[in-house]
Specification:
With about 750 residues, this protein is an alpha+beta fold. Among the domains are: about 110 residues, Immunoglobulin-like, CATH 2.60.40; about 140 residues, Immunoglobulin-like, CATH 2.60.40; about 90 residues, Serine Threonine Protein Phosphatase 5, Tetratricopeptide repeat (Alpha Horseshoe), CATH 1.25.40. The protein is built from 23 helices and 17 strands. Strands 1, 2, 3, 4, 5, 6, 7, 8 and 9 form a nine-stranded mixed sheet that branches. An eight-stranded mixed sheet has the order 10-12-15-14-13-16-17-11, with no helix packed on it. The chain starts with 10 loop residues before the first helix and ends with a helix.
C-alpha cells in the first residue's frame, strides 16, 4: 500500500518523535484512562444490576414468607399481630413488589373490620401506584379507594373514582362493582333514575378475547359487551340482539345498547338464577356446571364476510362461602359450645346440579395453640432440613411457623336446603376422645374447611370459617348475648352495633319512614351512651370513635346542640384526630341549618385549608351554597355581590379541587349564573361540558331544563325541545318534569 506523504519505513520514527511530545503523551494517557474508566464503570454497573436482581428475588421471597406468616396469624384470630407483620413487610422491603399485597391486606382490614376509611384509603392509594405492574391488584385498589369515599358519605368523590375504574380497567370484574357503588350512591342522593340506570349494569362481565377464563357466577347478572366498528353508523336508539343458550335447556335473547362515548361498544345484560329452565322469560336459569353459549351475528366484518356468527361460551360457577352459624343459620358465631350442635353452612351455586336436593362434603378440623417448645423444635427441624432460612435482615424465623397444631379432622356431609346452592348440616360437638366423632376442649379452635373447585378465579380455593370452643351457653342463639371475655372486643362490638343501627335509621329516613328511623336512632343512642362511660376509662381510639358515633347520631336526630357539643369535645380532646375535618364539616352543617351563614362559611373555609383532607373540595362547594342562600334572602342591593361571591366559590372548586367529586356540581352552578346574566351562548358551552364530562353531577335535571331554556333563547327551538324531552325521560321523578312536559307540548304544537 502506498503512503502519500511518508514512506513506510519512516512511520515508526514519526510515532517515536510524537511520543516524545508531552501534549501527545497526555492525549494518549487521557484516552487510555477514559477507556479504562468506561470498562470499569460498565463492569460495576453490570455487577450491580445482577446483584439488584438477585437482591430483588431474595427480598420477594422473604417478603412472601412474612405475608404468609401474617395470614396465618389472622386465621387464628391474632389480628393485631397480623397487622404488625404486614406493616413490617412494607417497612423492611420497600422495593419489593410484595409490598403492594401488604398494603392491600392492611387496607382491606381497615375498611372491613375497623371502618377506618381514611387510613384504609392511604394504603389503597399506595397499592394503586403506577409502579405496581399487577393490573388485577391495581383495579382492586382503585375500586376500594372509591369504596372508602362511599362508606364515608363522600359520594361525589366516589363517583369520580368508580368512573376511573370503568375507564382504566374495562374488562376487569371490578367494573361491575364500580357500577354497583355508583348506583347506590345515586340512590342515597335521591337520584333514582340514575341509580337504576347504573344498577342495571351490575353483573358478571363477559371477558374480552384475551382473558384467561370466561365465567359467570350463578345468581348474578350476565353482562355482555360487544365490540364492532359498525355500531358507529347505526341510527340512534338501535339495539343489537344476542342469543344465550344454556346446556340445561334455557334460551333467552338480550338486547344490547350502544353505550358511552365509544360508538363501537354495546352493552347488554340478563339476570341469572339457579333453577329449572323456562325459555324466553327474561331470566337465564342455570345449573351447576352449566355452560352458556352466547351468539352474536356480525352483519358485515372487516374481512368483507356477511352475517358471520360470533360464538362465546361462558361457564357457570359459584363462589363458595363457608360459615359456622347459630341454629337458625342467620348469624355467624364466634364460639362453639361443647355439648351443643355445631351448625355448618356452605354456599356454592355450582354444586346445585339437579332439580332435587344435592349434597357436598367438607372437613371440620380441630386445632390447639402450639407451645413455645414445639415452635422451637419445628424451627430447628426446618433449619436442619434447609426449609427455613434467615431473612436478609435477620427476621425471626418463628414468624414462618404456623402457630396452630391440627389435632383431628372429621369429614361431614352437607345437604342442600330449600334455597338453591345453600348446603347445611348440624353435628354434635362433644368433649373427650371418642372415635368417629367431633370432639374438642375449651380454648381450642374449630375450623370448617371447604374446597371450592369451581369459582371466578383460575384455580381451586379453600373456603374456611372458624370458631373458638367454649363451655357454657351462647344464650337464645343471639351473638349479642355472648359473654365476650375481652372487654375491648366487647366494646368495639357495641360500637359497630350502634353504627349499624344508625345506618338502618338513615335508610328509613331516606324513605320517609321517620317514626321507624327515630326508633333506630334511639336504640343506637342507648347503645352508645352505655358504651361512653366504659370507653372514657379506656380512652384512646375507642373513646375517639365513640365521640364520632355520638355526634353522628345526634346530627341524624336533628339534635343540633348535642351534635355541636360532641364534635367540639372531639376536637378538644383529640386535636390530631383523623375525624377532625369531618367534625368541623358537621359543625359547619349545623350552623348552616340554623342559617348562621357567616359562622358556617368560616368553618367550611377552615376545612378547605386542612392539608390532604378529602373533604376540602366539599367544604369549598358548601361555601358557595352558603353565599347563594344568603343572596336569595338578601334585601336591597346586597344580592348581586353575594351571587358573585358564590360564583367565585364554585369557580375555586373547579380550579383548586379538580378531584373532589364536586366539580360537575360547581360547573353546573356556574352555568346557572351565566343564564341569569343572559350570557346564553357561554351557558350552553358549560352545560355541554357538564353533560359530557360529569355524568354523576347533581342537578342534572336542572341543567337540562336550563340548557333547554338557553337554546330556546338562542332561537334553537328543535334542540331545546330535545333537552326538555331528555329531562322528562331521564328524571321523571324531578319536580320540574311537569313544567318541562308543558314546554314540550307547546313546542310540538308549534311544529318544533
Amino acid at each position: 500500500m502506498k503512503i502519500p506523504t511518508t514512506k513506510r519505513h519512516e512511520f515508526p520514527r514519526i510515532i517515536s518523535r510524537k511520543k516524545q511530545n508531552p501534549l501527545f503523551s497526555s492525549f494518549v494517557s487521557i484516552r487510555v484512562h477514559s477507556w479504562f474508566l468506561f470498562l470499569l464503570l460498565f463492569t460495576i454497573s453490570h455487577a450491580q444490576e445482577e446483584k439488584a436482581e438477585r437482591g430483588s428475588l431474595i427480598e420477594d421471597r422473604a417478603a412472601r414468607k412474612l405475608m404468609q406468616a401474617g395470614d396465618a396469624r389472622l386465621e387464628v384470630g391474632e389480628n393485631e399481630k397480623a397487622l404488625e407483620i404486614w406493616e413490617s413487610v412494607i417497612e423492611r422491603y420497600p422495593s419489593s413488589a410484595i409490598r403492594f399485597e401488604a398494603h392491600l391486606r392492611l387496607a382491606d382490614h381497615l375498611l372491613q373490620e375497623t371502618k377506618d376509611f381514611d387510613k384504609a384509603r392511604l394504603h389503597y392509594e399506595a397499592a394503586a401506584a403506577d409502579e405496581n405492574e399487577d393490573d388485577s391488584l391495581r383495579a382492586h385498589a382503585v375500586l376500594s379507594t372509591g369504596r372508602c369515599f362511599y362508606e364515608a358519605g363522600n359520594y361525589g368523590k366516589c363517583f369520580t373514582i368508580m368512573r376511573d375504574v370503568i375507564e382504566r380497567f374495562p374488562t376487569a370484574p371490578e367494573v361491575n362493582e364500580a357500577y354497583h357503588y355508583i348506583g347506590l350512591g345515586h340512590f342515597k342522593l335521591g337520584h333514582y333514575s340514575r341509580a337504576i340506570e347504573n344498577l342495571e349494569k351490575v353483573g358478571t362481565a363477559l371477558s374480552s378475547e384475551d382473558s384467561k377464563s370466561e365465567k359467570v357466577e350463578a345468581g348474578k347478572r350476565l353482562y355482555v359487551k360487544l365490540d364492532d366498528r359498525d355500531f358507529a353508523i347505526l341510527q340512534p336508539g338501535t339495539r343489537i340482539g344476542v342469543t344465550c343458550v344454556t346446556k340445561s335447556g334455557d334460551k333467552e335473547n338480550i338486547l344490547c345498547d350502544p353505550v358511552g362515548r365509544h360508538p363501537r361498544l354495546a352493552l347488554g345484560s340478563i339476570p341469572t338464577q339457579s333453577g329449572t329452565a323456562v325459555p324466553d322469560n327474561g331470566i337465564l336459569e342455570v345449573r351447576g356446571g352449566d355452560v352458556v353459549t352466547i351468539t352474536y351475528t356480525d352483519a358485515h366484518t372487516s374481512s368483507k364476510d356477511f352475517d358471520r356468527k360470533l360464538i362465546r361460551e361462558v361457564r357457570v360457577v359459584g363462589n363458595g362461602f363457608a360459615r359456622i352459624t347459630d341454629g337458625s343459620f342467620q348469624q355467624d358465631l364466634p364460639a362453639a359450645v361443647i355439648g351443643k350442635p355445631l351448625h355448618l353452612q356452605v354456599t356454592d351455586a355450582d354444586r346445585d346440579t339437579s332439580a332435587g336436593p344435592d349434597s357436598l362434603e367438607a372437613v371440620v378440623q380441630v386445632f390447639r395453640q402450639k407451645t413455645d417448645e414445639e415452635i422451637d423444635d419445628e424451627v430447628a427441624s426446618g433449619v436442619a432440613s434447609g426449609e427455613l432460612t434467615e431473612g436478609p435482615e435477620g427476621e425471626d424465623m418463628k414468624s414462618q411457623i404456623d402457630p396452630m397444631l391440627l389435632l383431628r379432622s372429621v369429614t361431614v356431609a352437607l345437604k342442600e336446603a330449600e334455597q338453591a346452592g345453600v348446603f347445611r348440616s348440624a353435628i354434635p360437638l362433644l368433649s373427650g376422645t371418642e372415635e368417629n366423632a367431633l370432639t374438642g376442649e375449651p380454648g381450642q379452635t374449630i375450623r370448617l374447611v371447604y374446597r371450592d373447585d369451581l369459582n371466578l378465579s383460575e384455580g381451586a380455593l379453600v373456603r374456611t370459617a372458624e370458631a373458638r370452643i367454649i363451655e357454657g351457653n351462647l344464650g337464645e342463639m343471639r351473638v349479642t348475648q355472648t359473654d365476650i371475655a375481652d372487654a375491648d372486643l366487647r366494646l368495639k362490638t357495641q360500637l359497630r352495633t350502634a353504627s349499624a343501627l344508625t345506618e338502618v335509621g338513615n335508610h328509613y329516613k331516606e324513605f320517609g319512614l321517620n317514626a321507624k328511623a327515630d326508633l333506630k336512632y334511639a336504640e343506637a343512642l342507648d347503645v352508645c351512651e352505655d358504651l361512653l362511660a366504659e370507653s372514657q376509662k379506656i380512652g384512646g381510639k375507642l373513646l375517639e370513635e365513640t365521640y364520632v358515633q355520638l355526634w353522628r347520631i345526634y346530627f341524624a336526630m336533628d339534635q343540633l346542640d348535642l351534635a355541636l357539643g360532641m364534635s367540639r369535645k372531639l376536637l378538644a380532646e383529640f386535636p390530631s384526630s383523623a375525624f377532625v375535618d369531618e367534625a368541623m364539616l358537621q359543625q359547619a352543617n349545623v350552623e348552616r341549618k340554623r342559617e348562621n351563614f357567616t359562622r358556617a362559611i368560616n368553618l367550611y373555609a377552615s376545612v378547605s385549608k386542612i392539608p390532604n383532607s378529602p373533604l376540602r373540595g366539599e367544604a369549598q362547594f358548601q361555601i358557595g351554597e352558603c353565599y347563594e342562600a344568603m343572596a336569595l334572602k338578601a334585601t336591597g342591593g346586597e344580592a348581586p355581590r353575594l351571587f358573585e361571591n358564590a360564583f367565585t366559590a364554585y369557580q375555586q372548586v373547579y380550579e383548586n379541587f379538580p378531584d373532589s367529586g364536586r366539580v360537575g356540581d360547581a360547573v353546573a352552578k356556574m352555568a346557572a349564573f351565566y343564564y341569569q346574566k343572559e350570557d346564553y351562548a357561554r351557558a350552553v358551552d358549560v352545560f355541554e361540558n357538564v353533560l359530557a364530562d360529569h355524568p354523576d353531577a347533581n342537578f342534572l335535571d336542572v341543567i337540562l331544563f336550563n340548557y333547554g331554556r338557553c337554546l330556546y333563547k338562542l332561537d334553537r327551538k328543535p334542540e331545546a325541545r330535545k333537552k326538555f324531552q331528555q329531562l322528562i325521560d331521564d328524571y321523571p321523578e324531578s319536580e320540574i318534569s311537569p313544567e318541562a312536559n308543558k314546554i314540550v307540548e307547546a313546542l310540538t304544537q308549534a311544529g318544533f
